[in-house]
Amino acid sequence: MKKLLHHSTMPYNKINNLLGWLCFTIAAITYTLTLEQSVSFWDCGEFISCAYRLQVSHQPGYPLFAMIGKVFSLLSFGDRTKVAYFTNLCSAIASAATVMFLFWTITALAKKLTAKTYTDAMPRQRLISIMGAGLVGALAFAFSDTFWFSAVETIVFALSALCIALVFWAILKWDAHADEAGADRWLVFIAYVMGLSIGIHLLNLLTIPALTMVYYFRRYKNVTFKKAFVVFLLGVTLLAFVQYGIIQYTVKFAGWFDFFFVNSLGLGFNSGAIVFFIILISAIVWGILYSIKHKKYFVHLALMCLSFLYLGYSCFMYVPIRATANPTLNNTHPDNAFTLASYLNRDQYSPSPLLYGPYFDGKPIDQKNGAARYRKGETKYEKTGYKQRLVYDHNTFFPRMFSDDGDDPQFYRQWMQMDEGHTPNFIDNMGFMFSWQIYQMYARYFLWNFVGRYNDMDGQQSMTSLDGNWTSGILDGGKHLPKSVTESPSYAPLYGLPLIIGLLGMYYHFKRRRRDALVIALLWFFTGIAIVLYVNQPSIQPRERDYSYVGSFYAFAIWIGLGVVAISEMLQQRFKLKQASVLAMALCLLCAPVLMAAKEWRGHDRSTKLTAHDMAYNYLISCPPNAILFNYGDNDTYSLWYAQEVENIRPDVRLVNLSLFTSDWLIKQMQHKVNESAPLPITMPFDKYKEGVRDVIYYNDEHIPGHVEVKEVFDFITSDDPSTHVEYQSGMVSNYLPTKNFKITVKPDDVIKNKVLTAGQTKNMADSLTWQYNSNLIIKNNLAMLDILAHNNWKRPICFTVTAGTRNMIGLDDYMYREGFTYRLLPLKPDTSLQDQSAKVNTAVMFDNVMNKFRFGNFKHARFLDEQSVTMFYPALTTTFLTLADGLIAEGKTDKARKVLNRFDEVMPNLNPFVDVANRKSHMAEMAYHVGDVKLGNKLTGDIYDYLTDELNHNASVYDDSPGRVDLRMVNFGVYILQNMVRYTKAAHQDALTAKMEKQLKIYERKFAAVLQPVE
């Protein structure tokens, strides 16, 4: 028998290794086939740009990620258009490696789990059960929704997941060999990977409590609940030590050393930081030598782990080194210890209160100074002020509903169904935490991955809406779901089967090996619920945040794998099946990874999509030469950065991100040449806008008659003359804004010399641009914009992206004209006849851009379009065509308008992400009839009719069962659009179509009579 076990060792290791690599191969092929071919939305454009040109990304920085991405970018061999593909491939390979290490993690746990279940006479059944567990769990995770999403684009979460997989696999390797000499080298290896992972993402640190428990359970025989709890607390303390002591305070101490050496000793910048690191390294080396000499083994082990943790963390030296080199993307410009500490601590973002803080209705009653803030001056560090902490009159322990920003209070009241007179209390606070933060923003994501989902639309604001909700699919057949859901590539019902297998695996694990199960539970908790509690999301997020919890889904996938062992034993014990392990493995493979791959593939196949790339191209191509393009938001900015920094598309255009333009470092960067773009006409010296100076300028009406030249206003609000200052209630003495009525006198010679207007437009040239500033305060981005307006003299075109929002145009709406995907500031007399000023079009330029220059991201033929493509850019493109056609018709250019409408039909698919888009397309259909294209009018009208009737029929079925859950906006707007369609088809003499729609319209008007209201 011993001989049999001895001979079974080698086959086990070989099979384990081969199947692990098989998982890698399957995952790598899957991700490569579904890989995004170019840049994608959100942070990816920034990450690719920073990797390709070794630049500094947003806080807290990802230096190792950038360096690894740079290596993969070299595979493009100079073809800039392929850089994004190969950095995306980096994520695919890293994700495949994660799946491989997960396989080996599951087999290691399954091997321990089956040690007492199977007798020595059944090694083959045990082997199949173990390997089946690994295959099922690893491949289920490979095909899970959240992990797959990150695996096919350039994002930090792919490499971060690999770090989690690597350290957890390593602790199990240590566990298996802990009694052997030299086994603790695995602990040093884990510390090193932890240090490296800081340069990718901090998610990996959350594995520390689970790893600590593995060490305790393995090293100590007399395990008690009390001792285990103490060790757990030590693990949490160790996590806090690394998070704050290592990552933040190491740099903070270096900063204070540097402050002393520079400000007190008069030495150069960074001299103190260098001395601090020399002392730190010397202390660690001395401690290691001391521990060796005096045979202090655990001191030696701890110091070795610390040294390797620091060695991995040292990749952050990249940040100040590259910041000093002044690359184009240099977020925060962290070139010294103070700014680097602020950068790592994410000081740019407002922190959420954790243990004590205000309710959202709290009123500030006091303001207290926090830590002093410093910046790098000419020869010394200069104090810029203090961090401010507001004191509120309505506070609570463990605040969850705390934000008074924007629409957040309204959202809290809506979500918790609190009327305006209700004062929030602790029960409301906890209710919000459980219903929104934990359920809506975590449990819903968990269920997406292992139960199924309706679609990939944003579903943060409703527990009952189809959009963004989870579904098993089991009862969907009786719900009369609309085709927009059932025919969507992202509709992926999994019938709850992966969840059931995972729950069986979890139950079985706790029943047979409670300690190991507890470790997995800790990993699941800290990478899931603990993140929810720590981040304390204030309210609606810019996007769904499921990617944050990929470590939690990784932990559950382990239990999905162990479900094979549980089912195998059940089949063996109850039905006495000799091939129970084979049957369990086959059953679970079909019910988890095979099912998931089949259902999820369409919703993750991004191989035919180029939306983000082409939308960035369209923004840039819409700009005249040497333009200044103001943009706002991640999905505008990051793909634009990619287009310029990587593919060198329109390097003459200067991109200005308005949300970052509030920072002195970005304004300063804009005063220098970048790529082929000359410095912006910003005349302020740095001392006039540096941090702590003119951070906010408040409006104080001086009742100045008429409109004042922008240059005069700018000179007044940037003057250092005490007569231009006022004392505020806070005691601060600073500039103020005396009027909001601005003017720019137009000099015709400047306009003509710079070819701002065409010959036909000059007759409508305005004598001056007059407008009212649209805010009661001026922050730094507005200050810099006024500087540009005052001193540009029409030399450089000033443009805004169409998605930037009119709020960011500081009241200049009357002079903004569409020229494609941008609005351009033009000195033309306002068209007061227009109610919607955003509808003004510079038709000649826009027609050329849209018809001859635009690219359309393969919209028409892409097998999958993500949520941003469908809900943000499809409506933007629809509006672009509609606005251009409308402008051409207004000018009597019906032939060109017909070409525009047909171009839309040629390049854009029939999508209706929401009812507003259907309304816009109905106007296009009416235009088609107007310009004599009956065929196109009928086609558009038929498509809209099919969409509306499908959605209204769905709402009719909901209305019968649960009237309170009807989408009233869809019903009211849908009926309104149908009424319009009846009107314009009747006018176009399409009698059969009109009759069909009239008949259906009457049915809806009767059905929804109780809830129909006029649409304004």
Structure description:
- With 1016 residues, the protein is of the alpha/beta class.
- Helix content is 55%, strand content 8%.
- It has a five-stranded mixed beta sheet with strand order 8-7-16-18-17. Strands 11-12-9-15 form a four-stranded mixed beta sheet. A three-stranded mixed beta sheet has the order 10-13-14.
- β7, α24 and β8 form a beta-alpha-beta unit.
- α9 crosses α10.
- It starts with a helix and ends in a 9-residue tail after the last helix.
- The N terminus is likely disordered.
Task: Describe what is shown at a glance.
The chain is an alpha/beta fold and 1016 residues long. It is built from 35 helices and 18 strands.
Q: End-to-end span in angstroms?
A: 84 Å
- What is the helix fraction of residues, given as a range? 55-70%
Strand order of the largest sheet: 8-7-16-18-17
Largest sheet, in brief, is:
5 strands, mixed
Number-wise, the strands total 18
- The Rg value, from CA coordinates, equals 31 Å
| Class from secondary-structure proportions | alpha/beta
Average pLDDT level: 93
Number of helices: 35
- Gross morphology is globular
Query: Which stretches are poorly predicted, pLDDT < 50 over at least 5 residues?
Result: 1-7
Per DSSP, what share of the residues sits in E-state strands of 2 or more residues?
A: 5-15%
SSE blueprint and pairings:
Elements: H1 2-33, H2 44-52, H3 63-73, H4 83-113, H5 123-142, H6 145-151, H7 156-177, H8 185-198, H9 208-219, H10 225-264, H11 271-293, H12 297-313, H13 318-324, H14 337-344, E1 356-358, E2 364-376, E3 381-392, E4 395-397, H15 408-416, H16 426-450, E5 452-453, H17 483-486, E6 492-493, H18 497-512, H19 514-526, H20 529-535, H21 550-575, H22 580-604, H23 611-621, E7 628-631, H24 634-645, E8 654-657, H25 664-669, E9 696-699, E10 708-709, H26 710-717, E11 725-727, E12 733-737, E13 741-745, H27 748-753, E14 768-772, E15 777-779, H28 780-791, E16 798-801, E17 816-818, E18 822-825, H29 843-853, H30 867-890, H31 894-907, H32 915-930, H33 934-961, H34 968-987, H35 991-1007
Parallel strand pairs: 7-8, 7-16, 9-12, 10-13
Antiparallel strand pairs: 1-4, 2-3, 5-6, 9-15, 11-12, 13-14, 16-18, 17-18
Helix pairs in contact: 1-4, 1-5, 2-3, 2-24, 3-4, 4-5, 4-6, 4-7, 4-21, 5-21, 5-22, 7-8, 7-9, 8-12, 9-10, 9-19, 10-11, 10-14, 11-12, 18-19, 18-21, 19-21, 21-22, 23-24, 26-28, 29-30, 30-31, 30-32, 32-33, 32-34, 33-34, 33-35, 34-35
